[in-house]
Design goal:
By secondary structure, the protein is an all-alpha fold. Helix content is 66%, strand content 0%. It is rod-shaped and about 85 Å long. The N and C termini lie far apart (79 Å).
């Protein structure tokens, strides 16, 4: 039969092991979360566009309103031929285009805006 002292010692050891296990799990979870944030922050503009914009604007088009596409001629026509103007539109949305300020960081919005301009210059090729 296990004595009361041995039982207490075994319980203390078990609690210590469980505590260390929880600390290890919590630490690894924080590292995984940090890795995810870093990966998201370093996503290329093309990936940002593909994930957030291409659903409506695949290859610089617009599946909802054909004339409001991302081709250079349309961008100039609607005053969207600068990073600042595109960034403002992406940030705040307009009409049926939703705002992305809650989904993308300011840096990601600037990067995807620059990407749109560079792609428009090459006719999305």
């Amino acid at each position: 039969m296990i004595s009361l002292i041995n039982l207490k010692k075994n319980l203390i050891v078990a609690l210590l092991i469980l505590t260390l296990a929880f600390v290890e799990i919590a630490t690894n979870s924080q590292i995984a979360i940090a890795d995810t944030a870093t990966t998201s922050a370093t996503a290329t503009a093309a990936e940002i566009f593909s994930t957030n914009c291409a659903g409506c604007h695949i290859n610089g088009g617009n599946i909802i309103r054909r004339g409001k596409n991302l081709q250079q001629k349309a961008l100039k026509k609607y005053g969207m031929d600068s990073i600042a103007n595109i960034s403002n539109l992406v940030t705040n949305g307009k009409g049926i285009m939703p705002a992305y300020k809650a989904r993308l960081s300011e840096q990601q919005i600037i990067e995807v805006s620059a990407y749109v301009l560079s792609q428009a210059e090459t006719d999305w090729k």
